[in-house]
Amino acid sequence: MDKIDKQILAILQEDASTPVAEIAEKVNLSSTPCWRRIQKLEEDGVVLRRVALLDANKLNVGVTVFVSIKTNQHNAGWYAQFSNTVKLIPEVVEFYRMSGNIDYLLRVVVPNIAAYDAVYQKLTQSNALFDVNASFAMEQIKHTTALPLDYAGLD
Description:
This is Lrp/AsnC family transcriptional regulator. By secondary structure, this protein is of the alpha+beta class.
């Protein structure tokens, strides 16, 4: 990955709908070589997909809840059931297995506390969970989907 690839990625991370001709102009290439580079970044799995970023408040899911979960179950069968349950809940937009004091961390988006309670009921209904702790975000100070590119190409 060279400097031009990183420039292309920076542009795509800012706005994936930027026309190839405009990207090419910004990175001092003609359209065809620029398009080929973008295709290669997609083929190599660097660009996973191009998506639209939506306004959560305008879609009435402006309440963000971080849910930390502890369990005393760590076998493969339990994990498969739990992860399948979580993956089927559309309000869960991020799901991580953690190290440290908690086992799992979820980011949930909902319109209100009642909607979070419905998610909580789904989570706890069929899964043996030791502790579920919810923290409601009061203010979003920084949110980006752009990844830092300074480390790209370093092995």
